[in-house]
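Researcher: Here's the sequence for the chain we discussed earlier.
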Amino acid sequence: MLFLMNDFETYDNIQPTDDDNEESDKVTWISNDVHDDGPEYSDIQFNHTNTMLERFLALFGLRKFRSNQQEAINCALERRYHLFVFMPTG
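Model: Thanks. This is the structure I predict for it:
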């Protein structure tokens, strides 16, 4: 799997809308059935795993992800679910 710049949507590609409706800006919960899917993506060997780790080492010089980073990347690259990741910075 190749990760090319054209594979990702950038802010330049996002079209503005004329909808300036405060109602659409309100946050609503989709579901109260929230659960952690991280363990499903932690130790599984995906098709992209080797390439991902090679690129991670080549680009950042790191061999190990921080907590939950690899799970989030695996889930995003597998594209089975919509993904929202909320992680602390440090």
